[in-house]
Amino acid sequence: MTEVTTQAEKPAATTRFVACLWPMYVFEFCTSMHFVGGVLVPFFTDWGGLTLTQVMIVQSWFMLWIFLLEVPTSTIADKYGRKISVTLGAMFMLAAVVVYTSYPHIAVFLAGEFLWALSGALISGAQTALVYDMLKAAGRETDSKKVFGKIGISFRLAILIAAPIGSVIAMSVGLRETMLFMAFPVACSIVAILLIKEPPDGRKQARKNYRVILLQGIKNFTRSKSLKRLAFNMVSVALVSYGVIWLYQVKLASIGVPIQYFGIVHALIVSSEALVIAAFGRLEKLLRSKRRLLVLSTAVLGGGFLVLAFVNEIVPVTIAILVAGGFGLSRFTLFDSYFNKHIPSEERATTLSTVSMFRTFGQAAFNPLLGIMMDGSQPCTFVILGTAALILAAFPVVKDDDLID
Predict the structure, then answer these.
(1) Are residues 110 and 32 in the same domain?
(2) In whole numbers, what is the pLDDT of the chain averaged over residues?
(3) Cα distance between residue 379 and residue 199, in whole Å
(4) What is the pLDDT of residues 73-84, one digit of tens each?
């Protein structure tokens, strides 16, 4: 009798937890509805009155805080549960939107970025862990890849929809309102996450010690030349490709493209990135070398920047932005696979966290320099970035043996 009852209860448990996954898709979609994404630079410079140097300092401030807050915020998930952590993260995101739109001043923006970093730190690991806990409780761990894939689709779909809408809002209502309108989907995300029932073991989460992570990660790198080469290639090119995200709007404005089209270009960059990722397998076969694919992506990035430096016609500029963004910003997907093949399973999280920290520190240090260069001369900045990318393509450091399937 007991055995029959247990078997009868299993489908009900599975149905309950699987049915609760749809709010996670809604949560990801709503928190990714960044209407301001396509007009972020005009928001800071035109409404906020900041120079590009100040804009990039604000971004470095955000990166610093999201790193510093990662450890203390993990205790929230430890003590109160992952659902509470994610819910608080969404609430702080809503607060960040309100603060950001309260008054155009750099001090206000720094406060807003702090709240945004706090939101990101509370959500980041806790959201992924919460989803996995729900699948595990339902006996559906094997579906994790499919579920996380759907969450990724929700993220990209939100960007594709929100960016063009945001440009229309900016043109018809105002830049401030483009940011302020984000409050509505973020509020909906809070409702969505509250609908989820957290599994009983959802509060069990190992605390992170970034000193231990850094020391162990560095130790892993000292033992592996392949990891050193892969990390150098990924981080160095990432610093250059990051310029696409912030500088394409500056270029479009300089050649007279109306602001209502910025969001469309933003959405097309995301689409271009997805198309390149989908084509990785075919490109590897065509080039007959994984290393050549890395070289090609870096060279295309550099060529795109050089086009932006010397060309001022709308069509070729737009094509250069899409191609440079598609190839430059999609490289992380390749490295996700390559890194894992060189790291023992028990040390994987530690080593990958170290790589992430290297990239964060490098980007935070490089951002103000990028802003200074853009305030000085746009063409010269594009030439410098393009030349740097071409040099990295000519000397990629990585070897074919490093790129294991």
Answers:
(1) yes
(2) 86
(3) 54
(4) 777 876 788 889
